[in-house]
Specification:
Residues 362-441, 450-535, 954-1037 form the PKD domain. The chain is mainly beta. It is built from 7 helices and 96 strands.
């Protein structure tokens, strides 16, 4: 073997064995197709520093037993962590047990519905980050034990009074930030900051609509509680019981008590807004509490700037403000010797514009990219600290040496290893540090050829000119070949040679470097300029400015065009081939991102060059400094070589005027949210321009009314869905989301923050320029159950009636969309897409082109039969669109130009015929802005219509998965009929029948059975009989079967029914059992009670109600003897919750006979169905099934069956057939409602 090859291979093997492991990402999807189907398995395979990405799905609880794992869910609306079907894995542990370590764990983007979240309780876990998660109805408290936890952007709601504490925090320096705590009822306190949490920050949270005794229990010292909102709570906002805390810039509205001082000294409370039943209460009056700022604050009030100490806003303060500075002339004296606020505010603190100073929590934070790679690895660090730091100290190796004081530096790691990074930020109020352990992983690079580069000094001068060349190549170099005049001859093989140019001229220099792995050359054209002795440079090049347009913003997710303005030749000679280089600070200080050439510039001339930076920056948040250099290689002799460059910095931001699906990280196209394929149609009605309300003009409320003629639903139709589209613009509500009270037909559908309410909210904003944070939005509500075909009204009010706080939003006219079924109409396929996308076109003002200012609406979820389509209509809704504005594209074709004809106050649809552009799949509309005035693309609705088809009569047929076997024999029947039947009636031959399409039936007795199927549609019916089709033999041996009696049950919403859990026989008797009964859909029904037989002397079961319960008992008196048959083990009471069906299953953990031997029974399944039943006309209650046979004989719902029910049936036969499930009222079991059903009801009485 070649010796050199052997050495290289040996080195590679050593690197694999000894080099640091590179962090990797594992993928989890419960439907398969990726690395793992469970989070637990991914954690077991991962190493410290790895990332686990979890796709849409439902997952069991898990344990983290290694440090620095990042577990990211696809979204808290897509990823749910919950117990498995039998109640196992009902906890999350970070880590699992004593001695384990889960330090540095990151949990993100999940709906955590397990009952026992333990963070740091059983082992070591500090520096944990939990963000963007939902905690809903967590049974136990959320434990957090360990230092430096960050808990941010989470939603915690619906904690019950059985939990004394919601979140139990024990550890120093916590950050609890930007969370939403709603509808919690903890008996002691919801967020409990224990005494160990010294130096914690609680900032930007919302505590609302809760009945918890204390929302925030502050038992720690030296904490900052700032920028929180406590609103509409029946208990206490904050309870303080320690020293030296700062409570500032919080808002208290409609709480029973704002702050309760239990104990504690030297707490400072200022710049808060109080508007509660009681502002301040106490248990022990402290010696000192400060009620004003520690220093004077500079602020602007009513247009004038002042500097003063500042206190709080008290609603019952009635002092004067003689000098108009917003500070009361007289002190506010608190009751009960609690102290005096010497600087009470005349208005809530939001009305004061603070300049420079202010109590903002300082929190260090940063990101890095990339975080792994081969040495040398250059990493860009981005500061994301909050609290307005004024200095930055970066320690990139955590060795105690400060490596950079820039805000957003880059650093090159030259050696392999795992590096811990420490950022310390500071301002006048203090400092804070963020330490990320092993966050940078650098690997040993594989052998590779060198990269040639060099410099020279000087590069110009009189002949003879001696030039010193310095090699600056990267990599290992074993040989050098210098060609100083690029004539093909090697002039030197030294590393750093000198060379004398004797002759006047311009010279190109070529350096070739090589090693065992290859070679590379660097050629610098016209690099050396040699002039005649005595020649003096007479020209000078300079740059006036570097301009980043528009608005000095660098746009993310696209290339940026940079203007190098005022390139001037101050001399007398014309200069040629002038290079202009552009450098970006986040790319390289030495390698330009792009260059341009000025072919000629006369003496005294000035020109401008536009240079494109092709760098794509996926995320906003960083800052880029552009530096332009003219003649970067100093090829042109100048009188001043020091004025050839100019720089300008700009923040990286998303461009909100462009289509957000392409130009905003995490942004969405206008995607399909609802699809319908039905006989029927869609109606939509948007209120007129007069319904538009400007900011601050609708404090007394807005009422929008639709008459029956606005939405004419044809007689005989069934309402499928009704959506209310509420659009707004120019929102400036504090926090970025409107707070509103919305009422539809007298029903409150929203009361508070739209982002956490009952609707689906979509938003967009320009994100830069003069209107950077003026939000546009669309909120969608399902109002199907509140809609009236005779007319509807929609009332909008500012939350709490406060127009000053919550009227800072303009209201577009609202839209109602009705989807209905009607057998007299043609078939329609309806796609409803939803989003909000602000669009504007102006290269100079917005940095946009027509193509970029396009919102795309892909229509998905159904295939279209294009050859059969009769009409295809697009309803394209847009706000502020027109007149003569916007182009409509469909599948890349221009359908219409300047098409929208509304104005700045409209939000209605423009209607387009798109039939000729349709594809079977992959259809996409493009809504393209055309003016700088801008438009707001909203919901897009595509309606595809087919002609009526003649319906042929069905032809019945069916099959079965088994046709013979021992009793009990479960057979799955499959309908194979043709002709599109709409109803089915099965006669199984043993006296049982059902009206399902594909039923399952259990034959319990020996015999030969004939099976009949009748199918029907609007064109007729057909009958298929299979004689002697099922043969059931007597079971051999002593098979034991567990089953439900009845096998199938139905129960109305909020009603209950009893189901027996039965065993067929016990050949050797029964001593006891431990069983689990599970309902597979917890939304449909739940088990609310268990009744045991009299022989069950000792019993135990799960807490009720529940959908997966265990039952455990013992036959203490040996009542169940050998050969006992049809033994009832328990009676389950099941309550209906909402329309649907759920399967019942039985799991056997233990069942023993009288000799202690295990019984292994066959377990059959059951089914519970909850129909959607309404009271009959003129009745108060919905019908009931009194005997559990699936037939609802109690038509009046009064709990008894009598002649009154027969009369009600007789008078409402047509109504029942149109509005109720026919099978629940088909007493003669023929698949329809008829007079013979009335006769059968007489017979029942």
């Amino acid at each position: 073997m070649n010796k050199r090859i052997f050495i290289i291979l040996f080195a590679l093997i050593c690197m694999v064995l000894t080099g640091p492991a590179e962090a990797r990402t594992w993928y989890v999807d419960d439907s398969g197709g990726v690395d793992f189907t469970s989070i637990r398995d991914a954690i077991n395979s991962a190493s410290s520093g790895d990332t686990i990405y979890v796709y849409n799905g439902t997952y069991s609880g898990f344990y983290v037993n290694k440090p620095y794992l990042t577990i990211i869910g696809e979204g808290n609306d897509l990823v749910t962590v919950t117990p498995n079907d039998v109640g196992q894995y009902n906890e999350i542990r970070l880590p699992y047990g004593t001695g384990d370590n889960a330090t540095g764990t990151v949990l993100e983007g999940m709906n955590i519905s397990i009952q026992l979240p333990y963070f740091g309780t059983f082992g070591t876990a500090s520096d944990v980050i939990i963000k963007n998660c939902i905690f809903n109805r967590v049974f136990s408290r959320i434990y957090m034990e360990g230092d430096k936890y960050t808990f941010e952007n989470n939603i915690v709601s619906n904690a019950s009074s059985s939990q004394s504490i919601g979140i139990d925090a024990t550890g120093a320096s916590y950050i609890i930030r930007n969370n939403y705590f709603n509808n919690n009822y903890n008996s002691y306190g919801h967020l409990y900051i224990r005494s160990a949490c010294t130096g914690s920050i609680i900032d930007g949270n919302i505590f609302s609509n809760s009945g918890t005794t204390r929302n925030l229990v502050l038992s720690a010292s030296e904490c900052i509680v700032s920028n929180n909102t406590f609103i509409n709570n029946t208990g206490i906002g904050i309870r303080i019981s320690n020293n030296n805390n700062t409570i500032t810039r919080n808002t208290f509205i409609k709480n029973n008590e704002a702050i309760q001082i239990s104990s504690g000294e030297n707490n400072r409370i200022y710049l808060n807004t109080f508007n509660d039943t009681q502002e301040i209460t106490y248990k022990t009056v402290p010696s000192i509490t400060y009620w004003s700022s520690p220093d004077q604050i500079t602020y602007t009030y009513n247009g004038t700037t002042y500097a003063s100490y500042m206190g709080n806003y008290w609603p019952n303060y009635n002092g004067t403000d003689t000098n108009g500075d917003g500070i009361g002339d007289d002190p506010y004296v608190l009751p009960d010797s609690l102290g005096t606020d010497n600087y009470p505010l005349m208005q809530s603190y939001e009305n004061y514009n603070f300049v420079g100073s202010g109590p903002v929590a300082l929190v260090a934070a940063f990101t890095a990219s990339p975080t792994s790679g081969d040495a040398p690895l250059t990493v860009q660090f981005t500061d994301e600290s909050t609290g307005s730091p004024t200095s930055w100290a970066w320690d990139f190796e955590n060795d105690g040496i400060i490596d950079s004081t820039n805000q957003n530096p880059s650093f090159t790691y030259t050696s392999a290893g795992n590096y811990t990074v420490n950022l310390t930020v500071a301002n006048a109020d203090g400092s804070d540090s963020e330490v990320k352990t092993d966050c940078i992983v650098v690997n040993e690079p594989l052998p590779e050829p060198p990269v040639a580069d060099f410099t020279a000094t000087p590069t110009s001068g009189d002949a003879p000119l001696m030039v010193n060349f310095t090699d600056s190549s990267n990599g290992t170099v074993s040989s050098y070949a210098w060609d100083f005049d690029n004539d093909g001859n090697v002039d030197s093989e030294e590393e750093n040679p000198s060379y004398t140019y004797e002759t006047v001229g311009t010279y190109t220099v070529n350096l070739t470097v090589a090693n065992a792995d290859g070679s590379d050359s660097e050629v610098k054209t016209n690099y050396i300029t040699v002039t005649q002795a005595g020649q003096v440079a007479t020209n000078d090049l300079s740059i006036a400015a570097v301009l980043i347009s528009p608005s000095n913003v660098v746009f993310a997710r696209e290339a940026n065009n940079i203007e190098v303005y005022g390139i001037t030749n101050s001399g007398t000679e014309t200069l040629t081939n002038i290079t202009v280089a552009l450098y970006a600070s986040d790319v390289s200080d030495t390698v330009p991102v792009s260059t341009a050439t000025i072919s000629s510039l006369a003496g005294g001339g000035t020109t401008t060059k536009f240079i494109t930076d092709p760098t794509i920056r996926d995320l906003q948040g960083s800052t880029v400094t552009y530096t332009a250099v003219v003649d970067p290689d100093n090829l042109i002799p100048e009188t001043n070589e020091a004025n050839n460059n100019k720089s300008r910095a700009g923040p990286v931001k998303y461009n909100g005027y462009k289509g957000k699906g392409l130009y905003w990280e995490g942004g969405s196209n206008i995607t399909t949210r609802h699809t319908f394929d039905l006989q029927g149609n869609l109606l939509c009605s948007t209120m007129p321009t007069t319904a538009y309300k400007s900011v601050g003009t609708w404090g007394s409320g807005r009422t929008e009314t639709w008459t029956a003629s606005d939405l004419p639903v044809p007689s005989g139709s069934t309402i499928e869905k009704v959506f209310l589209y509420f659009a707004y613009n120019w929102d400036q509500t504090a926090g970025g989301y409107p707070w509103l009270n919305l009422s539809f037909n007298g029903n409150i559908i929203e009361n508070g923050n739209l982002s956490t309410g009952n609707g689906t909210l979509y938003r967009d904003w320009s994100n830069f320029g003069a209107y950077a944070d003026y939000e546009y939005g669309l909120c969608v509500y399902d109002v199907t159950d509140r809609f009236s075909s005779s007319g509807n009204s929609f009332v909008t009010n500012p939350y709490d009636g406060d127009n000053n706080l919550y009227g800072k939003v303009a209201l577009y006219p609202s839209t109602l969309v009705v989807v209905y079924k009607n057998s007299n109409e043609t078939r329609k396929q309806i796609f409803i897409n939803e989003e909000c996308d602000e669009l504007g076109v102006s290269a100079s003002s917005y940095g946009t082109t027509l193509e970029e200012a396009t919102a795309y609406a892909p229509f998905t979820g159904m295939s279209i039969e294009t050859v059969k389509v009769q009409n295809a209509t697009l309803y394209s809704f847009a706000g502020s669109a027109g007149p003569d504005e916007g182009n409509l594209l469909f599948n890349g074709n221009i359908v219409a130009t300047n098409a929208w004809q509304g104005d700045s106050k409209t939000s209605n649809a423009q209607v387009f015929d798109v039939k000729s552009y349709l594809n079977e799949t992959g259809n996409e509309a493009g809504i393209q802005g055309t003016t700088s005035g801008g438009m707001d693309a909203l919901q897009q609705i595509l309606v595809v219509e087919y002609p009526k088809e003649t319906v042929a009569g069905p032809i019945a047929n069916f099959s079965a998965n088994v046709t013979e076997g021992d009793a009990p024999l479960t057979v799955n029947f499959t309908d194979t009929s043709t002709g599109s039947p709409t109803s089915w009636f099965w006669d199984f031959g043993d006296g049982a029948n059902v009206s399902e399409q594909n039923p399952s039936h259990t034959y319990s007795a020996e015999g030969i059975y004939t099976v009949n199927l009748t199918v029907e549609n609007a064109a007729g019916s057909d009958f298929e009989s299979k004689s002697s089709y099922i043969e059931v033999s007597e079971a051999s041996g002593s098979t034991v079967t567990l089953y439900f009696d009845p096998e199938s049950s139905s129960v109305a919403e909020n009603e209950s029914t009893e189901i027996n859990l039965v065993t067929s026989n016990f050949p050797a008797g029964l001593s006891g059992y431990n069983l689990t009964v599970t309902l597979d859909d917890p939304n449909v029904a739940e088990i609310v009670d268990i009744e045991y037989p009299s022989w069950a002397l000792i019993t135990e079961n799960s807490t009720l109600p529940g959908t997966s319960i265990y039952l455990k008992t013992v036959d203490g008196n040996d009542t169940v003897k050998a050969d006992a048959e049809n033994v009832v083990l328990a009676i389950l009471t099941v309550s209906g919750k909402e329309k649907g069906s759920a399967n019942l299953s039985i799991g056997v953990d233990r069942m023993d006979d009288d000799s202690g031997n295990a019984i292994e029974p066959t377990c059959l399944t059951g089914k519970i169905e909850v129909p959607l039943l309404s009271p009959l006309p003129d009745q108060e209650y919905a019908p009931k099934d009194l005997d559990g046979d699936g037939l609802y004989e109690d038509l009046t719902g009064n709990g008894e069956f009598s002649f009154v029910d027969i009369v009600a049936y007789f008078h409402n036969m047509d109504w029942i057939e149109e509005n109720m499930p026919v099978e629940y009222f088909d007493f003669n079991v023929n698949g329809r409602i008829d007079f013979d059903d009335v006769v059968d009801m007489f017979a029942m009485i």
